[in-house]
Here is the input.
Amino acid sequence: MPAMQLKVYQPPQGPRAFHLMAKPIGPICNLRCEYCFYLDKERFYETSKWRMSDEVLEQYVKQYIESQDVDVINFAWQGGEPTLMGVDFFRRALELQKKYANGKTITNALQTNGTLLDDEWCEMLKRENFLVGLSIDGSQELHDHYRVGIKNEGSFDKVMRGLELLKKHKVEFNTLTVVNDYNARRPMEVYDFLKASGSTFWQFIPIVERLEKMDQRLVIAPPPEETGHDEPYPVANWSVPPRLYGQFLCSIFDRWYREDIGRIFIQQFENTLAPYMGQKPGVCVYAETCGLALIIEHNGDIYSCDHFMFPGYKLGNILEKPLAEMVYSPAQLRFGHAKADELPRDCITCKWRPQCNGGCPKDRFAADTQGTKKLNYLCPGFKMFYNHVDARMKKIAEVLRQPAMR
Here is the structure.
């Protein structure tokens, strides 16, 4: 019997461009949000010193800029809670960016829970034109349901203090709201709160996690490819149910369509609109393939994706192997193309495939009509939403295609 041949993939044609999210303090955070999938990653670095060294930082900045053939390079800082690194770490990062920019434009984005922001932080963020993503899940009751501190205290008041500081210093910010089993039941309360906050760009991230076990801490289940078999791991109780997620998006869309088109921008709606405009969705979750959105951990380890931060998806370390070699390695190319190659028949024949392309691979564990467990868990919610907005998305696209009035 001949040996099985692995399909060989070629790197994308055209200028090299990819995204490498930095986790300078790994999974360490000053909060203990119950649904946080990244706190679990501490188990892979039990004896680690949780801080990106100057050596790793310099190699990250240098290689990330030099490995791309585009004029604008975006650095994204996340965690854990990246502000635990302190302002001076980011001042050093900015120095290195200037040193290695070589004529390219450098931008920075910081995703934070906002609880550690102060005037010094906000003065630096404003001066250096950082885009800040603020994590907040709605009104105080909705936010504090899961987003709690080490002593199980609510974090809402501290987050709001950070929000007011961002506005005081005129720092550009958007909001990231995790849609879970609790706040998804009150979409108008979420909408009212976000609108009143002054945010004009909203991201809604549906939380879907399967648990390997619940011990003294949350342990996220590995993907089937990591273990070689698909266990029936239970879906965490805070995960948003598929149809509830669809209902949430439909309610948010109806309100937005009536009141706030052109004033508030919602990432899901922008990506849903893209195929109507003859464009491809702009984020990896809805793209046909993935693999160009990697992460660098605090010690320089490179992983395929932050949702696939498991040993089997480690590509190497930036101190030992060139970054570009890892990004375009056969393993990473296979990882990226698997999203399309492993689509179940239900997705291939679905009219909404251009909108979602099967969704995020980490959520593709539900059974389809053929009995294979490759369907996205949120598929019923996706279909509900896409059917609900179809006619109005066509109208929006028609208006946008018309020549501007002179």
Q: What stands out?
A: The chain has a mean pLDDT of 94. The CA atoms of residues 61 and 97 lie 6 Å apart. Residues 379-401 form the longest helix (23 residues).
